[in-house]
Amino acid sequence: MPETTDAAADPTESYSYLGPAGTFTWKALDQVPQARGQHWRSVNNVGEALDDVVSGRSVAAMIAIENSVEGGVSATQDALATIPNLRILGEYLVPVDFVLVARPGTELDRVRVVNAHPVAYAQTHLWLEARLPSHEHLPATSNVAAAASLLESGIADAAIAPPGITEHFDLVQLAEHVGDNPTAVTRFVLVSRTVELPEPTGADKTSIIAELPADHPGSLLELLEQFSTRGVNMSLIESRPIGDALGRYRFIIDLEGHVLDERVADALLGVRRFSPSVMFLGSYPRADRLPVEYVSRYGDDVFTEARDWLRGLIAGEPQ
Amino acid sequence: MPETTDAAADPTESYSYLGPAGTFTWKALDQVPQARGQHWRSVNNVGEALDDVVSGRSVAAMIAIENSVEGGVSATQDALATIPNLRILGEYLVPVDFVLVARPGTELDRVRVVNAHPVAYAQTHLWLEARLPSHEHLPATSNVAAAASLLESGIADAAIAPPGITEHFDLVQLAEHVGDNPTAVTRFVLVSRTVELPEPTGADKTSIIAELPADHPGSLLELLEQFSTRGVNMSLIESRPIGDALGRYRFIIDLEGHVLDERVADALLGVRRFSPSVMFLGSYPRADRLPVEYVSRYGDDVFTEARDWLRGLIAGEPQ
Amino acid sequence: MPETTDAAADPTESYSYLGPAGTFTWKALDQVPQARGQHWRSVNNVGEALDDVVSGRSVAAMIAIENSVEGGVSATQDALATIPNLRILGEYLVPVDFVLVARPGTELDRVRVVNAHPVAYAQTHLWLEARLPSHEHLPATSNVAAAASLLESGIADAAIAPPGITEHFDLVQLAEHVGDNPTAVTRFVLVSRTVELPEPTGADKTSIIAELPADHPGSLLELLEQFSTRGVNMSLIESRPIGDALGRYRFIIDLEGHVLDERVADALLGVRRFSPSVMFLGSYPRADRLPVEYVSRYGDDVFTEARDWLRGLIAGEPQ
Amino acid sequence: MPETTDAAADPTESYSYLGPAGTFTWKALDQVPQARGQHWRSVNNVGEALDDVVSGRSVAAMIAIENSVEGGVSATQDALATIPNLRILGEYLVPVDFVLVARPGTELDRVRVVNAHPVAYAQTHLWLEARLPSHEHLPATSNVAAAASLLESGIADAAIAPPGITEHFDLVQLAEHVGDNPTAVTRFVLVSRTVELPEPTGADKTSIIAELPADHPGSLLELLEQFSTRGVNMSLIESRPIGDALGRYRFIIDLEGHVLDERVADALLGVRRFSPSVMFLGSYPRADRLPVEYVSRYGDDVFTEARDWLRGLIAGEPQ
Hints:
The structure is a homotetramer.
Chain A: E1 14-18, H1 24-29, E2 39-43, H2 46-55, E3 60-67, E4 71-72, H3 74-82, E5 86-95, E6 99-102, E7 113-116, H4 118-131, E8 136-139, H5 143-152, E9 158-161, E10 172-176, E11 185-193, E12 204-211, H6 219-228, E13 234-241, E14 249-256, H7 262-274, E15 278-285, H8 300-314
Parallel strand pairs in A: 1-2, 1-3, 7-8, 7-9
Antiparallel strand pairs in A: 3-4, 3-11, 5-11, 6-9, 6-10, 12-14, 12-15, 13-14
Protein name (chains A, B, C, D): Prephenate dehydratase
InterPro entries (chains A, B, C, D): ACT-like_dom_sf, ACT_dom, Chor_mutase/pphenate_deHydtase, Preph_deHydtase, Preph_deHydtase_CS
Pfam family, one (chains A, B, C, D): ACT
């Protein structure tokens, strides 16, 4: 699989992703229409991917942000929290499915050392325990690297890899669907430098990262009230240490709705006034395309009407 | 004391008050600089006073709204809740002090029937019980009417009246300071038709009347959160029945601050979006002229900065 | 109508009420099964009625506490707030309906002076304005006193009185249903000295009066959270001035449920811990006998189970 | 360093830890007085450590739960959430400090491949980038395994390891304090099977894991109110996916105070009634031994007094 998918690649139209081709991240990027026919830069980690975006080497990077089993991807969350002027353009879901591969001629029962990325290993651990109880784990830096390593050294007998890997490497599949959780899914986001907002679609999500005022008991409650008093639901809240001391956290929050929805805009104003540091990461269509539901009293028209009312009474007009 | 204080009275410059001259309401109106030298219309109750304002007979009416002992004046609260397009221009405090008066020649120990407005009677009841244990109460329509009645009929022997009443009537004072609560005070408001807002002074109050959404447990809590999440304090909250059924209330609320203060404006927007019916009664200087205190994170600059931030991120500017 | 309804009256079985016979309060007391055949003491005001209870002259007193149009009865609320060790045993509703009565031979069109209790006058004002536009109001101390006065003096031409009054007085009815609000109703409570609680019926109400911590912005919100976090609805909240200064209030609150309901008991514990002064006025059957509705997660079993769970984990038992 | 510290080891007195000797976990266990002179079982991961506890092979296991830079340790949090009947006995802090070690004779400038546990690599990444810009990372399963690997294979030139490692292995130190964050610290907990609670010390922490009711917007807010309405502060809140679907989380929460503190017990009752699943992980002394501060109105005496009051009024005693 070529790293550059097309001949006519324009260098301002590079997309970075955790490679090589065939990884789950590659599968996520494969869902992006505007990335087709462009240059795809394979990188080693989320830091490199975002560096490409910041420096302008790539117009966007696809990065994993959350796994339904493993939780938030700390490296991604921390990078988004500390690198300014990034924007999420969209989110993409990739089912987590694994195969066990080996060099041709290997028999499943003879496998002893399994090369696997630690996260992949955690998600296939039960299968491996049951089927290969005396196996040993050799960690790899990516799912594809685990497979590739089989061709380079003789330490591992098999590797945990994404489906389809045998199309790219001279390996055979010993078992498929070896993931412990058949409904597992990883959520990816396409990240760019600050650009104009995508139009609201009615099925949008807004991501922010906010810190709490220091030494203020109950301040998380107060942060959440900014959303509840405007009828804005959260689809995600995760805490991450700020890093300067134990007990100091920032919160990664996904809200249902678009910043151009009045209730979301009003909630963000409340958060901005409250939080010593808040980052707006973008409003973008939800991967599931499900329309956001909200109580009618939080509709745009209600906000507009209230502003008109206030303007009128300040002007001294009859109510 | 003449009902019209001056010769040059212009009919568009009438002020209505619960008369006659000498009542507590008259004393409140006497604190209003712009009313000096104008025509003062003595009326019999708050309904007549507000009728004068609505019809244009008077530019404003002084009406009692709350007593520190007796509580809110229901008639005033209900009138303000049901007559549209009224505005409070200012508030005025009058200490509640009473004297006992009688026809010349009356001895205190011979007093048996005491004429008194019911509210005044309630506030002098302990003194009367102690000093005149066998007295009877004859209700009057106002404090001054109680005194005036002594000159018209022989039923009552004495009357509870405001200090200074003997300057206007041929009566003698049998006792002074007969009020049970020496710190009692009545709060009056000067009410006009909708006009432009007074400028913020930094020591302002904003009055509203709001109904709650029907059949929504916890909706009072939600109403109060509109204020607490913007750092707006309430100096008054009173419930009044809407009148259509038991258990349905509207709330009379005084907020600290002016509608041109950002935090107050934002709270009013929240109330407007939430409440099926909200009336703005005005922003006006507090009687005590004490500056409103609020936490710095609710300052106007914080609101302005947050709006600028939101505008910038919507426009795609670097954060 | 005799003041004592029966020969065998036992003085420890007196019931006090705002008389004389025929008043709305009398109609409320008439709904009380255990009062039948006992001595009924007619008194002049709520203060006397409660004095009878405190002194032991009566086992209970029937007093008006709220009117669907006029709101809470301040005198009752303030008396309950300041007299210790009273308990509400039950509540009773009486429709507010009025007739206009006069001495025999009086013609409606000739009526000029109308004797009426101020509250009754407020509730018939629109009818009187429309039908007798030039009438004058003479205040009375009770609805029945208004009627009785017609027989004693010649000042008033007619009186506003409760239906049925012509059975007790030699008067004729000039008009019926003269009340402005046909759905108006007054709520009465039967008050006793502290006694054992009535059993829960599933359709109960609990009344308390609570003060807020001084100088604590948002403390009303915190009080209400004691109820909302336990799924306890309020059917009434009214503020009354404490009386020592403007801006200091106590709150009269009716809760849905019985103090022996776990969620209500837990909420009262929360209020007690929070409030500098809270009075429990009783748990008693609702006048409308409607079962209290609440979310199942606030059921007694949920509270019991949680306590068992906590006890177990403190004891180190497996969870 | 011997795996068993003493000759007289009793198998019921084994302590499990992520080994081998010298790891940060070993340093944490070294702070536990009752573990001295007992058998220390070196295991490979948190799963094995907790298996030892559940099976009874060890009386307790020391496991890392949070890092001030990297955040919560997902494996530990998920294990505690899914294995019943575990109890935290205490918490221990270990500063995160690293050295770079190599086989004797290695020069720093010649190092190309660095063996390091992924978490350790993340915390020394900036130092390595600056000092060894062209290095490559080889992942290891633990910090000590990274060092040990140098003696077994020739792939890596150096390893990131804890200070003191050269006392146990025939390696030399190329650089010390190579951690990027000098204030970084890891928090460990000592976990046992359910036992009786440690006595409150006044400087305690209580750990729970709670799920939220499904499809209930604002339910996190409601969970947090269980604490705020009882004056209980949280020192930690982290979300972890439940694992069955995206968007379903459980919350790991540390509260200030002991379950035998009334306010904590009452809050736990509230959580139990609210949450479809709550696990109590223990009350234990804080590592920093700082007394818990709380507002006096949440003191034990206030809770006791309120219960006495409620009991009295239910019994019909005078208030």
